[in-house]
Structures are given as structure tokens and as C-alpha cells.
Write a structure and sequence with these properties.
Layout lengths: L15 H15 L10 H11 L14 E5 L6 E6 L6 E6 L13 H11 L1 E6 L11 H21 L4 E6 L1 H17 L7 E5 L9 H5 L12 H7 L4 H4 L17 E8 L3 H13 L4 E10 L8 H19 L2
Helix pairs in contact: 4-5
């Protein structure tokens, strides 16, 4: 019997040369970072400074979002509110950065574009980062923020129609948050959809993490961030479902859009997660972009624009659902 597995729209192939050229520019721009030990105190400080608004990586923050603090498990948690003129729903955003770097403010441009396109209030979480605050500090803060939003979104933002999502570490934390809400409440989490951009879901590593190391943008093959986040846990310990959601029971989750590119070292994490979500009976869309690197939905290319639009369309359809 003949079979065919088509992971992406063949029409995307016409945009591959443009995307490959962009990938080469990323590889050239980051080549000098090859010797940087991001797991050392000096290297981590350098990366954090580079990724901060106004830093080397060109991140910028806007001056209009409101910053508020909510109670957290170990002290106040800062939340950053980006609210458009019309609010159809609320998107809980968890930023990327391997659980060790990044900030809500640095994602203002991405989040404000999404807020306007989807007419949602974006609430972005400055969760605690490792190594100062290793696992489970970050997931604990994200869960607390989600619970606060469930309780207060209608009063504070005029709607209780909730979405969740993020990129890379943020996608990982989004899945953990949904699983925690489901298991601790004994019911499906009250979110209408999850926007999961190229997360890592198996902390012990999938084949693509090893096979694509050094061959695609940003992939060093180093597990320093894992050590900062999880300490000296063994591979078996890292596959605890509470740490690696790929190994969790994935029933009763909201519709998910899983976005990844074929030039992303986390490709397998996302292919495997989408398959397991579907097998568990969840509505799931898998959006694979040929030659798309880590960060594909932010790429200044045709492929990047198409990825962003698909995310917006997905979130809009979740809000339109009865």
C-alpha cells in the first residue's frame, strides 16, 4: 500500500531560497558566539544583556504597556499588559529564552502586533529565571499567572475568553501550565486555544537536537541551559512528565497550533508533541515551514509573514468558537 505524509503546503517551497538566504545571514551573524559558554556566569550575563531591550540583539520595549504585580508563590510576579482599543479575548504570553534569559518587555513588538491583529489583550509574564531560580520556580510563576487570569480577566479586561502561548521556552511553559491546571482542578483548563511556537518538550533530548546541532541557526548542541534549569538530573529524571510534557498524559487540552521549521533543532520535539496531542484526542494543527529556523514566525521573510498570519488566523478561530 502506498502512503504519503505531507508536512507542509508544497506552495511554501517557492519561498525556500529567500528563507535559506536569511538563515545564512543568521549563521554568519552568530558565528562569533560559538565559543561563548552561556552556562557560565559571565556568558549568561552577556546573553541577558544582549537580549535586553536596547541590547545587541536589537530587542526593544514600548513605553505604553502597563506593568502590574500579582501575588506569586515566592513573591510578586510582574505582568505586562498590552491592550488594544477593542478586546475580544486575553492572550497569556510566556516569553522564550531557555528558562534562563529573556523578558516580557523584550517581546513588546511581537505582542503588540498580535494584540492588534487578533484584538486581544496580551498579558506577558516575567517569571523567575534559572539558575537563580531553578525548576520549578518558572513553571510555578506561570501557573500562578494563569490562575490569576482565570479569576480576574473578566473584571480587569472585560472578557473571560482566554488564550495561551509563547515561543520556545514559552511554548514549553504553556503546555506545562495547561497540564497543571487540568490535573489540579480535575477538569479541562479554561483556555480556548494554545499557540505553541517551536517549544522543547523533552528535556532529555530528541534526535533533531543532536542531529541538527551546529547545522542550523542558534543550535549549539550544548545542554548548559538544561543544567542551569534542572541541575544534575539524569536523563530519566528529566523525562518526568512534570518536567518534560512530551511524556505526560495529554488528554483534555484546548486546540493547539504547533509551529516549527525544518531548520529548527527542536523540530522533533514539535512533530512528536503534535502527534501525541492528536492521539490523545485533542484538536491540533501542525504548521511546518520548510527551512524555517528557530524563531520562524518572527523572521523578516515571506515564510515568517505566512507563519505569523497562520497564528493570527488560528487564534481568531479559537475566539470565534462557541
Amino acid at each position: 500500500m502506498n502512503g504519503r505524509l505531507e508536512l507542509f503546503d508544497p506552495a511554501l517551497l517557492e519561498h525556500v531560497p529567500e528563507q535559506q538566504a536569511h538563515n545564512r545571514s543568521i549563521m554568519e551573524a552568530t558565528a562569533a558566539m560559538g565559543g561563548l559558554d552561556a552556562a557560565s556566569s559571565e556568558g549568561l550575563a552577556w546573553v541577558r544583556e544582549a537580549m535586553a531591550p536596547g541590547g545587541l540583539f536589537g530587542m526593544k520595549a514600548y513605553d505604553f504597556p502597563e506593568v502590574r504585580e500579582i501575588p506569586g508563590p515566592a513573591g510578586p510576579i510582574p505582568l505586562r499588559f498590552l491592550v488594544p482599543d477593542e478586546v475580544r479575548g486575553v492572550y497569556l504570553h510566556l516569553h522564550g529564552g531557555a528558562m534562563t534569559v529573556g523578558s516580557a518587555a523584550a517581546m513588546d513588538p511581537r505582542n503588540w502586533d498580535l494584540a492588534q491583529a487578533c484584538r486581544v489583550a496580551v498579558v506577558s509574564v516575567d517569571y523567575r529565571l534559572a539558575p537563580e531560580h531553578p525548576y520549578p520556580a518558572g513553571p510555578d510563576d506561570c501557573e500562578a499567572a494563569a490562575r490569576w487570569l482565570v479569576d480576574h480577566a473578566a473584571e480587569e479586561l472585560g472578557t473571560d475568553r482566554l488564550l495561551i502561548g509563547g515561543e520556545s521556552a514559552g511554548a514549553y511553559l504553556s503546555v506545562l501550565t495547561l497540564l497543571r491546571l487540568r490535573d489540579r482542578e480535575g477538569a479541562p483548563p479554561p483556555f480556548l486555544g494554545a499557540d505553541l511556537c517551536y517549544g522543547g518538550y523533552d528535556m532529555a533530548g530528541t534526535p533533531s537536537r543532536r542531529l541538527l546541532a551546529g547545522k542550523v541557526p542558534y543550535a549549539t548542541g550544548d545542554d548548559g541551559n538544561r543544567r542551569l534549569y534542572l541541575g544534575d538530573r539524569s536523563d530519566a529524571e528529566c523525562r518526568d512528565p512534570a518536567i518534560s510534557p512530551l511524556w505526560a498524559d495529554l488528554h483534555d487540552l484546548p486546540p493547539c497550533l504547533v509551529t516549527v521549521g525544518t531548520a529548527d533543532w527542536l523540530l522533533d520535539d514539535n512533530l512528536f508533541l503534535a502527534a501525541r496531542l492528536a492521539a490523545a484526542g485533542n484538536p491540533v494543527e501542525l504548521a511546518v515551514y520548510p527551512e524555517g529556523p528557530h524563531g520562524i514566525e518572527g523572521a523578516p521573510t515571506t515564510m515568517g509573514r505566512l507563519a505569523r498570519q497562520r497564528i493570527y488566523d488560528f487564534l481568531g478561530s479559537c475566539l470565534d468558537a462557541p
